Amino acid sequence: MEYETLGGDAVPAVGLGTWQLDSRAAHAAVSTALELGYRHVDTAQAYGNEAGVGRAIAGAAVDRDELFVTTKVHPSNRTVADIVASVAGSLDRLRLDQVDLLLIHWPHPLANLETVMAGLSEAAERGLTRHVGVSNFGVKRLARARAAADVPVVTDQVLYHPWWPQRGLTQYAQDAGVVLTAYSPLATGGALGDDLLATIGRRYDKTPAQVAIRWAVQHEGVIAIPRSTSRAHLAENLDVFDFELTPAEMADITRPSYLRTGLAMLRGQLGR
Length: 272
Hints:
Elements: E1 3-6, E2 9-12, H1 23-36, E3 40-42, H2 50-59, E4 68-73, H3 80-94, E5 99-104, H4 113-125, E6 129-135, H5 139-148, E7 153-159, H6 167-176, E8 179-183, H7 195-204, H8 208-217, E9 222-224, H9 231-238, H10 247-253, H11 258-269
Parallel strand pairs: 3-4, 4-5, 5-6, 6-7, 7-8, 8-9
Antiparallel strand pairs: 1-2
């Protein structure tokens, strides 16, 4: 395993995402992942699966201090009091006294960003979370969030894959010391059938999925949270730290494409 430093903590560079998993499926996936050696788990209020994630954590033979657990506040919580109350609810469902990382899930057009960041800061100050961050923020909004928060904003969780490499945001985050958390690093399955990833993978005896995940985490200050429910795929996604892509391969894999990104997002909306 490799690690990125997030708020002074060493965080596993690959974790488990649970988007689109109901509570039962999340319980099964997280239980298997923890058994396989995952120590970084991501959930959200909007996913409706915090209770399943919590049951998996409670039932695992893993000490709490070995885990890094993230949840995200639903953007409908737009006041400090509502944000703090919603986090208390998340902790009840997760069966935890504290999460390691708390994010606002995405910008709400009717929310005051300064108020939202005050709510996340208040949750941190009350000990409900150790760190705070944001999700789906671009450079300008991330800069505003950092200025508004009373505590460090340690990550921005964003869509990040070879066809959506977030170059400007990546550079800003690296300069600012903010870690990027890559969700959908496999482009909602789009990476699995990519010929270039397959060709590169054969050089290292790796699958296209492993090459895509390695591409993400080989960037400075980037961690990835691929989602899977298959034991074989969970193990495969974690097995990406015994090879290193060359600079030329990293450059070749990076192929920004609105079309391929849009098709991947459509697959995600259709649950495929």
